Give the backbone structure.
Amino acid sequence: MRIKKFKDEELLWEIKFSKTLFLCITKWKLSEFDIKVNYKDLSDSKYRKTPKHIHWIFDIMIKKEHKPGCIKLFAKFLLEKWEELDSEFCSNELKKLHNKEKSLEDLFKKIKEDIENLKKLEDFEEINNFWYFPFEFLALFWYLMILQEKNNRSDAYMFKRMLEGVINDEYNPYKIISIATWKYRK
């Protein structure tokens, strides 16, 4: 398999969500098995973009305006997963991705199964009609960001605090944006 390079970043995996939307991960440099999460939307540009926490939560907040029950259920599910994952597990998962012992599809398979079970509890059919990213894309993006965060910082908290804000209906956009854009200090 030929490894693609992008600005000296080694592409590890790419997964297709639609005819035009792809999620990609490249090797990154904060730690031994660090990753950088990117996406390509060919309907917009041929270039990879790096989504941030703010992009993720903004999409969730828009979706919550239209389907609050679905999004609260989704946020509770993600918060439970966030609590389960420790930094050792996250490092091991990233190591498997780096070493090609596990594909991005394999990683996504379990999360996808869990999401299908959620969909049985609530009507999620319309959720992709609101805003930009499809629901499954947001779930995999979230999972990869958690692996990355907890691998690099065992005291990571951004996603936890954002999810708690969504669950508790803390709909002060400034507060959520502040959480999503805070820079860790070493």
About this structure: The mean pLDDT is 80. The two ends are 38 Å apart (CA to CA). The first helix runs from residue 53 to 66. Helices lie at 53-66, 68-84, 87-98, 104-121, 135-152, 158-167, 173-181.
